[in-house]
Design brief:
Shape of chain A: globular
Shape of chain B: elongated
CATH topology of the largest domain in chain B: Rossmann fold
Helix content of chain B: 25-40%
Order of helices and strands of chain A: HEEEEEEHEHEHEHHEEEHHHH
Distance between the termini of chain A: 25 Å
Number of domains of chain B: 4
Oligomer: heterodimer
Number of helices of chain B: 21
Strand order of the largest sheet of chain B: 10-9-24-23-22-11-21-20-12-19-13-16-15-14
Structural class of chain B: alpha+beta
Largest sheet of chain A: 12 strands, mixed
Largest interface: A-B, 28 and 24 residues
CATH superfamily of the largest domain in chain B: P-loop containing nucleotide triphosphate hydrolases
Mean pLDDT of chain B: 91
Low-confidence stretches of chain A: none
Radius of gyration of chain B: 31 Å
Chain lengths: 367, 613
């Protein structure tokens, strides 16, 4: 399907004449003010292993970009592991079909939007504005947009299936960026539907070098650490807090946001832990409400995710879903690049590198 | 071809399989692997989703069907099943926790299939399957074939002797494997180690032969008494009923008579009643009483606990010809047709050098003349009395060398010692020896149904057993030959020879045997037997000891559990992996009647009483 329809899309792109202005880089992360406090005492716990206790559903999204002077295509693939009759379900696939966001001149976007054969395309942001020359967005915004939307769509499917009582997501439970409230609403709606279905959602954040949730006075004091908060991130704090040899859980901590945003959305409170796996770290987080509901099991989930860490430093279930998602987007990118190149549409150097990277991952099986 | 056409072609395959009831669709030929049909290797890979894999439990050796994009229907055998956990698929390795993720089992199974035969898809019902020549395209439809489709595609005949049921993937399928009558005339060799199920196979085949082939006579050489039990039911009822009648050729030697002299006298007295003994009744009554006693002894020995209900004895000129006995064994009543058997020297001496391997080539050539030198009386006792004189006379008159004369004398003593010639039952009375019963050979034209040659008394004397066998088989051959000479259609006769190496040894396997005689007999039965409607079924656990000719002249080979060397000897080394540790009853059959390849089957359980091991 993809190859054929990418051909149709490429026909439109081939006639695009107007070069797109480059998008600005994303500004520094700016989350809403929050307060972190430890829950209880004994915040450092060694994880000793145990039985393979949980069988969660794992949801992971992967994104890639292919650009030329006249367009940028953002591909998303979501893999859901352990939710259905098959081991893995996908977007695009049995969980949904929209997987490609296109930024291009307005006339191209309008044309492709009218073409019913291209029903897998996303040409507008969730607020309805076109992804055209004047979109006022960054690449990261578009990636967030398509990934959060697709992952949330996948979560809604999970909520409709008898898929156990635990869903593990790759990334935070929700984004706490002040400008992403639409995405917050989409994600929280999906998480709420999971909760109604008796499924607790747990987020696993692997990239923690820019996170500073443990860099608060209260958290550092609770961990008995003296760290210059101006030169601090969570990975650093975790590496100081837990011994370098062994698997440790640091937490739990309560995270609360102050006030509401401009549109009146409030960010629900979270509880999080850091898992330190022989020095490398990832964050496990869940809504405070789920933490309460799960009771003692909440920390057991975090400990189990830490104990099943893989050689790539992620919990096993997330890593499995991640490989499938990456393999999927690698295949899509290769197909898209083939279709585009066959119409003599030139690509940027970075895109060619991205293509080669995808090709390597695809051949190696995405691992 | 346009896209829509291609799509409808691929989709139509599934419909075709379902509408023709070829089987249940399980998947498609994998688009991710090359499907290869070559002159050397044929491999097709199939993706089967996890639930289907679980439900069908596909196993190695099992049959699957393929409806190909090019319009062929193929039957193939599963040669490999690949199962991978998600952790393997993704190359994800946990650092510390052993992966016990059951969800990861839900991966598709990949099955490697070796295509065996094909037919045009639209003519499956009326086609002769051929080996596979047509390429297999990815997305061809794969199905679990119906029993009918399997039978059709393997070219299994619908008629003939039932060997068992098709065996694939470690399980029996509801598909009968039969060997057509014409294949039996080109002879069969079954090999297998002790306990592999040869005897059960042969006994079941014998029953099926009688059941399926009109007017068939089965002659079974019975060293262990296995065939004598075919009148009794098995532990669990089978497909065939036990026989209602059995004919037993019972070699009655002088040693046997001597051993049972008193028993015969006592049993005869019982049947005669009123305190009469064999000497008190007329000749005919005495002969029949001896016949009755023989039957009773046989039944006691063969069917412990059975009762002789009644017996009708046919005798001519004091010779016990036949005892037709009604026997009750448990809930079964059957007819035992007992034929006491011995040779009359006067009638058979010309054959003696061919029956016994005791005489040198020169003595064999002169044997008849040497016997004639003994005078007119050609009973063996008379000859033995004049043996030294004959040897002396031969040395003088025909210049027979002393060593040859010695060979003749020694050989005749050995022949005499067998006790097979001129056997009678005598009792001393005041007037001297009175002969009450003699024994001879039956009318070989009058052998029908199952005829067991009871060789139990010759387990330790293969030379004597072989002499009996050669004589009986020669005479059966002669009977069929006479029918042919008369222009009549010979009656189909099938000779079942378990432990065939015992009677037909290979050079070096046994000391006292005559290679030419053995090979002449095999040649006669197999090469000449074919047109006389004689089929031979050899079986042995030791083909190394079986004569080469028996291996060469059998066009159907059945191999059961065996050592690789054994299989090599019968040109079935290819099946060593399958058969080295096969279950009892599992057999591979290679026959010209199965046109494409060998068939693996499992024999039926014993259809009549079987002692087993």
């Amino acid at each position: 399907m993809a190859v054929e329809r990418f051909g149709i899309l490429a026909e439109y792109l081939a006639v695009a004449k107007k070069a797109l202005t480059p998008l600005p880089p994303r500004e520094a992360e700016d989350s809403r003010p929050y307060a972190v406090r430890p829950i209880g005492e004994g915040l450092i716990r060694r994880v000793e292993g145990g039985v393979w206790r949980f069988a969660p559903v794992a949801v992971d999204g992967s994104t890639r970009k292919l650009s030329g002077p006249h367009f940028s295509a953002y591909v998303v693939g979501v893999a859901v592991y352990g939710a259905g009759e098959r081991a893995v379900s996908f977007i695009p696939g049995d969980l949904g079909r929209r997987f490609l966001a296109l930024r291009a001149p307005r006339d191209v976007l309008e044309a492709v939007e009218r073409d019913e054969r291209l029903d897998f395309l996303i040409v507008r942001r969730s607020d309805g504005t076109y992804l055209d020359e004047r979109c006022g967005c960054t690449d990261e915004d578009i990636f967030d947009e398509i990934r959060i939307s697709a992952e949330s769509a996948a979560l809604l499917h999970v909520a409709q299936r008898d898929a156990g009582d635990l869903a593990v997501l790759d990334g935070p439970i929700y984004l706490d960026h002040w400008a992403k409230t639409r995405l917050l609403a989409i994600r929280l709606d999906a998480v709420e539907k999971l909760r109604k279905a008796g499924i607790a959602a747990v987020g696993v954040v692997k990239r923690v070098a820019k996170s500073r949730k443990l860099c608060t006075e209260e958290a550092l004091e609770a961990l008995s650490l003296s760290v210059d908060t101006h030169h601090c991130n969570d990975a650093y704090v975790a590496s100081l807090a837990a011994p370098q040899r062994g698997i440790y859980l640091i937490g739990p901590f309560h995270l609360g946001y102050a006030g509401k945003d401009l549109r009146g959305y409030s960010f629900p409170d979270k509880v999080f832990w850091y898992a330190s796996i022989y020095g490398s770290a990832f964050r496990v987080e869940m809504l405070a409400d789920d933490f309460k509901r799960l009771g003692g099991d909440a920390e057991e989930v975090a400990a189990w995710l830490a104990w099943t860490a893989t050689n790539r430093g992620a919990p096993y279930v997330i890593d499995v879903a991640d490989v499938f998602a990456r393999r999927l987007t690698a295949g899509l990118l290769i197909a898209l690049r083939t279709a585009v190149k066959s119409r003599n549409i030139s690509l940027t150097y970075d895109s060619e590198m991205e293509f080669l990277n995808a090709l390597r991952e695809y051949v190696e099986g995405g691992a | 071809m346009w896209k829509a056409e291609l799509r409808s072609l691929v989709e139509a395959l599934r419909r075709e399989v379902e509408e023709r009831n070829l089987g249940e669709v399980v998947g498609r030929v994998s688009p991710g692997e090359a499907a290869s049909i070559g002159t050397e290797t044929r491999r097709v890979y199939i993706d089967v989703d996890f639930d289907t894999y679980l439900r069908l439990g596909i196993r190695i050796g099992e049959y699957l069907g393929v409806a190909t994009v090019l319009g062929s229907a193929m039957l193939g055998r599963v040669v490999e099943v690949r199962r991978r956990h998600v952790a393997h698929v993704t190359h994800v390795q946990t650092l510390y926790a052993p992966v016990e993720d059951p969800e990861g089992l839900r991966t598709p199974a990949q099955i490697a299939l070796e295509p065996l035969t094909e037919c045009p898809l639209k003519e499956v019902e009326n086609c002769e399957p051929t080996p596979v020549y047509t390429p297999v395209d990815p997305l061809s439809v794969v199905f679990k074939p119906s029993p009918n489709f399997i039978a059709k595609m393997l070219g299994l005949p619908g008629e003939g002797v039932l060997l068992g049921r098709l065996y694939a993937g470690g399980a029996e399928l509801p598909v009968e494997v039969r060997l057509p009558e014409r294949a039996l005339y080109q002879h069969v060799l079954a090999v297998g180690t002790t306990g592999a199920g040869k005897t059960v196979l042969l006994k079941n085949m014998a029953l099926s032969t009688l059941h399926e082939i009109r007017n068939a006579t089965v002659v079974a050489l019975d060293l262990q008494g296995d065939y004598l039990l075919t009148t009794l039911p098995p532990e669990t009822p089978g497909l065939y009923q036990p026989l209602d009648e059995i004919t037993v050729i019972m070699p009655t030697t002088r040693h046997f008579i001597d051993r049972h002299r008193d028993d015969i006298q006592h049993i005869a007295a019982e049947i005669l009643g009123d305190g009469h003994t064999l000497l008190d009744v007329n000749e005919d009554e005495a002969t029949k009483a001896v016949g009755y006693a023989l039957a009773k002894l046989f039944i006691e020995d063969t069917y412990p606990g059975a009762r002789l209900i009644e017996a009708e004895i046919r005798a001519e000129n004091a010779e016990v010809k036949e005892i037709a006995a009604k026997v009750e064994a448990g809930s079964r009543v059957f007819t035992l047709r007992l034929l006491p058997w011995a040779m009359k020297f006067a009638e058979t001496y010309a054959e003696v050098p061919r029956l016994f391997p005791y005489f040198s080539e020169r003595v064999s050539l002169l044997f008849q003349r040497l016997i004639h030198m003994a005078g007119q009386e050609h009973d063996i006792d008379a000859i033995m009395r004049q043996l030294d004189a004959v040897a002396e006379s031969a040395a003088r008159r025909i210049k027979l060398h002393q060593s040859q004369a010695d060979n003749f004398v020694r050989g005749m003593h050995m022949v005499y010692e067998t006790g097979l010639f001129d056997v009678s039952y005598n009792i001393a009375d005041p007037t001297g020896q009175r002969t009450l019963a003699t024994f001879g050979e039956p009318d070989y034209m009058d052998l029908h149904g199952l005829v067991a040659v009871d060789l139990r008394n010759f387990r330790e004397t293969p030379t004597v057993a072989s002499a009996v066998v050669y004589r009986v088989l020669s005479m059966i051959f002669k009977a069929r030959d006479e029918e042919l000479q008369r222009g009549a259609e010979p009656w189909p006769t099938f000779i079942y020879i378990d432990e065939a190496h015992y009677y037909f040894p290979q050079a070096g396997a046994r000391e006292d045997f005559n290679k030419e005689v053995v090979e002449a007999m095999i040649n006669k039965l197999t090469r000449l037997g074919r047109v006389r409607k004689i089929g031979v079924i050899f079986a042995t656990h030791s083909p190394a000891d079986l004569n080469d000719l028996a291996i060469q002249l059998t066009n159907t080979k059945i191999a059961m559990r065996s050592e690789p060397k054994v299989l090599e000897r019968v040109d079935m080394a290819d099946y060593a992996g399958e058969l080295a540790y096969a279950q009892s009853g599992v057999a591979v059959v290679k026959s010209f009647t199965y046109t494409t390849h060998a068939i693996t089957l499992k024999t039926l359980p014993p259809q009549t009483k079987h002692r087993g091991i």
